[in-house]
User: Which sequence fits this backbone?
């Protein structure tokens, strides 16, 4: 099985925005909204991420 890696780009000049984006995605994961969106678009459970990271760092 191939794991699909996804990402979002944002300017390195605005690390505060990156932190806010990471926090918001974490909240969507925590409350189940992220999983619901995956199912809505027909994506498998293994398409999910466990936690958002910036450049591979939690």
Assistant:
């Amino acid at each position: 099985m191939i794991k699909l890696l996804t990402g979002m780009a944002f300017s390195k000049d605005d690390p505060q925005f990156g932190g806010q984006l990471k926090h918001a995605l974490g909240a969507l994961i925590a409350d189940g909204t992220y999983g619901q969106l995956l199912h809505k678009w027909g994506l498998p459970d293994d398409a999910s991420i466990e936690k958002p990271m910036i450049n591979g760092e939690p």
Q: What stands out?
A: The mean pLDDT is 88. The helical segments are 15-30, 33-40. The two ends are 25 Å apart (CA to CA).
